[in-house]
Amino acid sequence: MAVKEPGAILLVACYELGHQPLAVAWPAAFLEREGYAPAVMDVSVEPFDAERVRRAKLVAISVPMHTALRLGVAVAERVRALNAACHIAFYGLYATLNADHLLAGVANSVMSGEIDAALVDLARRLDLSPDRAGQGEDSPTSVASKPGARAVPLTVLDKLKFPVPSRAKLPSLKKYAHLERDGGLELVGYVEASRGCKHMCRHCPIPPVYGGRFFIVPVEVLLADVRQQVDAGASHVTFGDPDFLNGPGHALAVARALHDEFPGLSFDFTAKIEHLLRHRDRLPELARLGCAFVVSAAESLSDAVLDHLDKGHTRADIEAAVRLVSAAGIALRPTWVPFTPWTTLDDYRELLDFVDAHQLVDAIDPVQYSIRLLVPPGSLLLESPALRPFLGELVKDQFHHSWTHPDPRMETLQREVSAVVAAAADQREDAAVTFHRVRALADRAAGAAARMFTPPAPDRKRPPRLTEPWFC
Predict the structure, then answer these.
(1) Is residue 88 within 8 Å of residue 76, measured between CB atoms?
(2) Above 60 in pLDDT, residue 415?
(3) Beta strands 331-336 and 291-299: pairing type?
(4) What's the confidence (pLDDT) of residue 450?
(5) Which CATH number fits domain 9-156: 3.40.50.10140, 3.90.930.60, 3.10.20.440, 3.30.70.1560?
């Protein structure tokens, strides 16, 4: 197959949780399978390349999360200034959620869901290939490519035939998040065993796009992807699935196949609290197969808040999950949304007490104590009567709806905690020291006496963690 105009397509990653961007590697593989030779650029770890931009006729920007979208819009503006004629497409979870703003500004098209084949179709429609046989003129992507036509946001939920992700042109794994374990740093690979999610948590950006559907990646494709990352030096792999246990049978098959071929390779995954409880009997086997830690979106200890978010678990469930995961020999790394309109100051202080009492201080990145509920356009929370009394306007250039806490102390506390954890991250401060600072702020907000703090030993054994602490 002849290669079609190298560099005419540029795939741009802006931020993918500190990992080598799978959301670029996979579309690149789909395009290469059809004879294209896309260029790639990851502005989170390498300089903006003006020459690659000038050569491109299609620049596709990956926006799988809020941080990536904010960075992606800035990238798109630079692209447009350098290459006014190119077609700029945004793809990923936050693309169609913010379609109105993007299409009114720098974007020619936006797409979300299982978009890889749709990007190939868009390349054909933009005449990046001489071969357009069999392509009808009524495709949604063709509308976005016609000069002067109003673009139509595209959500694709078709089952795809996955190639092995193409990583050869991406920056080295050395430039991305490492695993910190036993005082050393190790290279980390990043894969997905499934895409989408079958759950409908109201604050999550996945349900408005996937509507409760998820798609399995064949074991042989995943193993081939792991193989190339192990060859590049990875000794640990993160499963980036929204929930690794959405398909528990598939998850175990993947973990067993991984261990059979790479018995020394460890891994981590993300799973809901309710799945950890439902599949508790599988946790010891996952530990034996190499699971080092599990990330779980606990979000809150308040049953009222959990109900508003439709999380599907309770505080008692969180407590049970902490015990079960630890008993299986796996570290649990819960994540939180501690600032919501319904979270009281007592709730916040109780969360910190819980973290301390269950010896989770070293398992939680301090940024988690600062997270404020994000309400993007299209969020299921916008349908919730419980949010309406606190909801403000859409902040268009920030891609979220504002909201105000009924207790001004919580607004002040959120700002103070955010400043403290940001400064601590810059200084690489010990998580236990930062935790104490946050707790002191919360106690002061409540008018409570300051607590004594005894710094823990700096050489204490800590659970394994990734060096990138951000989650959204």
Answers:
(1) yes
(2) yes
(3) parallel
(4) 86
(5) 3.40.50.10140
